[in-house]
């Protein structure tokens, strides 16, 4: 596990080294800070996605949840709600949307890919119906939480880092955090050990939703308009980051740090290509290649692990 | 079963004939009736209907919904309108209903987005790819003084309309403005936020960049926000294809110089004129031009009625438009 995170960090280091040699302009303060700030909401969602995937589930509705929370938060802000009230509202709305997924998956035992596919489409279409694709214009005081641009960007980054550190700590040091790993590795064994897998699964989805709400606010403060399409494709971005970062899609293994490094690597690629003057056609191919490579190492691993017990059984 | 239906048709036909003697009934269908873009089309169509003494029915799905469009056309067939003008959400599915309308003697035209050629007499074409591409290239040249590095932000590298435009913008620049250079073409997935990131990277990678052109509508405000946040307003110009409402703030602040689109009011006006003139026989298939009220003589190429040059929204005129 550690090795995997180091490997991804190594790839990232190589990319940064190439950039430092070939295109040092990549490291200018303002553009780099803007790039990181733009990815900060995705980092928050990647933390939630790590927990969902650790529990051996998946949530592909996160992009739609993000869009719904963005538009709802934007409309309230436009109606004069102070940003201090908009944030908890968005988080709560996200929590509610996530809880619906959680209830359907944990309560009714439906497969999460089907449930979240349904909520993804439903939320997206519902939003289209209400908003017709029209932008929401925000009052000026919303941008950067009413701060100047630079401190505003640092605040967004600080929130993301706080969520990252907080979830890493909780997953590692709290018993409740380790329950996610236990349920993802073997739900039945976890149940026998006194953990309630349904409750843990529900918590993973509800937490994911709440983080979508938080991420939505972190995004809408970065420009004066909300595009209802905003979250489209975010689910893939979050899942890709997590998978590249070494979280096993089969559950039970991985960390939020891995997801963070994976996201950083994937997020740097578009900007890196621009700086290295490589045609945009390569972008998706490179990102896809990285994901494939990550999955390939994933497949190679369990085989190695499973062979000793097989031998034991034969003996 | 058949007899009451026939009676109903007969009665409604009589009613239509009696109530509106020679008053042409134009049924106009947008992709979505609540959409500001189509509402502004309707405003133009209303003016034309008034000038021509026609009756305008304006109805469409609330959401973009291909099935609902069919339903509305069916209703209009029953109602016995004179002419139907549609902006097709789904070319294939709607065209079946439109052919049925034609068989019942109802004239059909399309506007904004075309139906199958055999399912309508004319398509009111708001902008040809040449018109869009040339206007974008010429405006970019005007803003940069015809020289320097520019970058283009597209929706995706594969979208057909984007490719059509790109394919024409680059040769136009090369031919007419050889001292301008397109240094990068970057996709934005039609996302404003992504366009903002792309524009940020473009400005740091190309410090001499003079202009960012976005050829998808969310790209323009995205690029403008990036330029503003980089503190490069005025130094790096922003322009592209866009809606006045989405860009108003940046146009006012002087970050975005201009956005290009067609005048939607004129599009609605021309659509209503085409519809009525087709019914009255003043516009026949094969015509090469016809007189469209205050818009003057409009060109007809094949079965396309051309709206003409795109419209350039700037700081001075964009307040007149609300879509």
Task: Please outline what is shown here.
The complex is a heterodimer of chains A (315) and B (323). Chain A has 315 residues and is mostly helical. In chain A, 77% of the residues lie in helices and 1% in strands.
Q: What labels would you give this structure?
A:
heterodimer, A: 315 residues, mainly alpha, ABC transporter involved in vitamin B12 uptake, BtuC, two-stranded antiparallel sheet, 12 helices, disordered C terminus, B: 323 residues, alpha/beta, Rossmann fold, eight-stranded mixed sheet, six-stranded mixed sheet, 14 strands
Name of the level-1 CATH class of the largest domain in chain B: Alpha Beta
The CATH topology name of the largest domain in chain B reads Rossmann fold
Rg over alpha carbons of chain A: 20 Å
The spatial strand order of the largest sheet of chain B comes to: 2-1-3-4-5-13-12-11
- Given as residue ranges, the uncertain stretches of chain B (5+ residues, pLDDT < 50) are none
Computed Rg of chain B: 22 Å
The number of helical segments of chain A is: 12
Rough outline of chain B? elongated
């Amino acid at each position: 596990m550690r090795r995997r995170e180091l490997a991804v960090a190594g790839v990232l280091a190589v990319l940064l080294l190439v950039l430092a040699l070939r295109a040092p302009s990549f490291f200018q303060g303002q553009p780099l800070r803007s790039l990181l700030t733009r990815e900060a909401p995705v980092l928050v969602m990647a933390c939630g996605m790590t927990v969902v995937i650790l529990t051996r589930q998946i949530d592909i509705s996160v992009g739609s949840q993000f869009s719904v929370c963005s538009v709802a938060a934007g409309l309230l802000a436009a109606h004069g709600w102070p940003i201090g009230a908009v944030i908890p509202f968005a988080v709560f709305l996200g929590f509610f949307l996530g809880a619906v997924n959680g209830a359907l998956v944990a309560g009714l035992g439906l497969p999460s890919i089907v449930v979240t596919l349904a909520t993804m489409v439903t939320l997206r279409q519902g939003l289209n119906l209400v908003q017709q694709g029209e932008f929401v214009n925000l009052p000026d005081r919303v941008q950067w939480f009413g701060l100047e641009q630079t401190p505003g960007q640092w605040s967004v980054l600080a929130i993301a880092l706080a969520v990252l550190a907080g979830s890493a700590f909780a997953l590692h040091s709290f018993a409740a955090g380790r329950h996610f790993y236990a349920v993802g590795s073997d739900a039945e064994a976890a149940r026998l050990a006194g953990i309630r897998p349904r409750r843990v699964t529900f918590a993973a989805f509800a937490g994911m939703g709440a983080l979508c709400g938080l991420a939505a606010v972190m995004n809408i403060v970065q420009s004066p308009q909300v595009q209802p399409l905003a979250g489209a494709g975010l689910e893939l971005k979050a899942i890709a980051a997590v998978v590249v970062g070494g979280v096993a899609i089969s559950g039970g293994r991985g960390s939020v740090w891995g997801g963070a490094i994976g996201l950083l690597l994937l997020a740097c690629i578009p900007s890196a290509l621009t700086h290295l003057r490589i045609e945009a056609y390569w972008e998706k191919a490179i990102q896809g290649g990285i994901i494939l490579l990550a999955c390939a190492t994933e497949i190679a691993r369990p085989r190695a692990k499973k062979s000793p017990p097989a031998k034991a059984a034969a003996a | 079963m058949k007899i009451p239906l026939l009676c109903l048709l007969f009665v409604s036909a009589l009613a239509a004939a009696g109530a509106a003697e020679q008053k042409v009934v134009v049924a106009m269908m947008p992709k979505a009736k609540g959409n500001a873009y189509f509402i502004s089309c309707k405003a133009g169509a209303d003016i034309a209907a008034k000038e021509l003494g026609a009756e305008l029915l304006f109805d469409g799905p609330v959401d973009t919904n291909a099935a609902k469009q069919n339903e509305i056309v069916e209703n209009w067939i029953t109602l016995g309108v004179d002419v139907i003008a549609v902006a097709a959400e789904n070319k294939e599915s709607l065209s079946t209903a439109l052919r049925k309308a034609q068989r019942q003697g109802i004239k059909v035209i399309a506007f904004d987005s075309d139906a199958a050629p055999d399912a309508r007499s004319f398509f009111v074409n708001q902008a040809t790819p040449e018109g869009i591409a040339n206007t974008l290239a010429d405006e970019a040249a005007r803003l940069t003084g015809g020289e320097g590095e520019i970058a283009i932000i597209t929706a995706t590298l594969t979208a057909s309309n984007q490719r059509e435009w790109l394919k024409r913008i680059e040769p136009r620049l090369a031919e007419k403005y050889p001292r301008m250079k397109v240094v990068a073409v970057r996709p934005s997935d039609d996302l404003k936020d992504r366009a903002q990131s792309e524009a940020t990277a473009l400005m740091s990678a190309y410090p001499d960049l003079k202009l960012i052109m976005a050829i998808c509508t969310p790209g323009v405000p995205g690029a403008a926000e990036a330029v503003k946040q980089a503190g490069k307003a005025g130094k790096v110009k922003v322009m592209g294809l866009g809606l006045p409402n989405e860009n108003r703030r940046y146009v006012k602040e002087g970050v975005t110089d201009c956005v290009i689109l067609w005048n939607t009011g004129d599009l609605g006006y021309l659509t209503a004129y085409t519809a009525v003139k087709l019914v009255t026989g003043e516009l026949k298939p094969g015509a090469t031009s016809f007189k469209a009220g205050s818009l003057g003589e409009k060109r007809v190429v094949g079965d396309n009625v051309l709206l003409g040059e795109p419209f350039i929204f700037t700081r001075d005129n964009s307040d007149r438009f609300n879509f």
